[in-house]
Amino acid sequence: LDLFGKPSKHFMQQLATFETDEKERQEMIQTDFLTKAAKETGMTIADALVQFKHAQPPLPALLSMIPVIKPRAYSIASAPEALASQIELLVLIETWWCDEGMRYGMNCNMLRQAKEGEHIWCRVHAGSMEPPT
Q1: Are 11 and 46 spatial neighbours (Cβ–Cβ below 8 Å)?
Q2: What mean pLDDT is reported for the chain?
């Protein structure tokens, strides 16, 4: 589940149906709430669940509300002939700024913190492009 993704308006509306504090429920469904939260803190789904602790959906409902992590596709930047036992990836490090500072995308942050020589497991799927001959 994508707990560290940005909450959608739909997620906040669903969560608000379980909020018992009327003031907080109104805050959650304000049209500009997510825009302000993104600018101020870079709010994630996990942050929303912590902030609105009176909203306690049953576990099956909560699991259905949180989106699954989308697969990340990266471009292979090395040739099998040059490096037969390893691949090099071309990765864009996703960052954004909020009032609290710079935030990083989940996968990008994991790759950014990896140490040299550390193994990272991946799957390779054949693409539609034919390599040059």
Answers
A1: no
A2: 83
